[in-house]
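Good day; I would like, with your permission, to put a structural problem before you. What I wish to show you is a protein chain and, alongside it, a tokenised description of its three-dimensional fold. I would ask you to consider whether the tokens describe a fold that such a sequence might reasonably adopt. You will find the record immediately after this paragraph:
***
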Amino acid sequence: MKPADSEAAFIAFAMDHGVDILHCTVREGFEQMIAFKRDVAAEGVEADDGDVLMYQWGTFDWGDGPHFLVELTRQFVEAGVPEDDAISQLSLTFRFPSTPQYENLGEGNRWFDQGESLQETEAEVRSHPGFVAVNSERAADVIVRHDYV
């Protein structure tokens, strides 16, 4: 799969596994994203850190009021492409109306490099307070997008 095709490929991958990614729980979505990383290789990416995951959480205001989000992003760095055009990201974002409980979780991110096993990555994300708070929930909004950064 080429990075530019990752959004459609991920949605199809999840559907093939019986998951409607836009109407699933956080846990189901993250399981699909990790399985997609494990099972579907990215073509044409740098050998070292050309295909990595990032987990992000926090309360943010994107112009329509504060929302708590948890997000799993697969970042690609394409080989042989000028630096400014080489980096893209496939993101799976779950947004929830903000509450004091969510705001108390703070915000941040954690990058996982290619040297870390997907089992370790999954275990760390599953134990994070942001994930634990919403893992069985269905979000107000689920966003899947691929963008060049």
About this structure: The chain has one domain: 3-148. Residues 3-148 form one domain. The beta strands are 51-61, 66-77, 87-97, 108-112, 141-148. Residues 26-39 form the longest helix (14 residues).
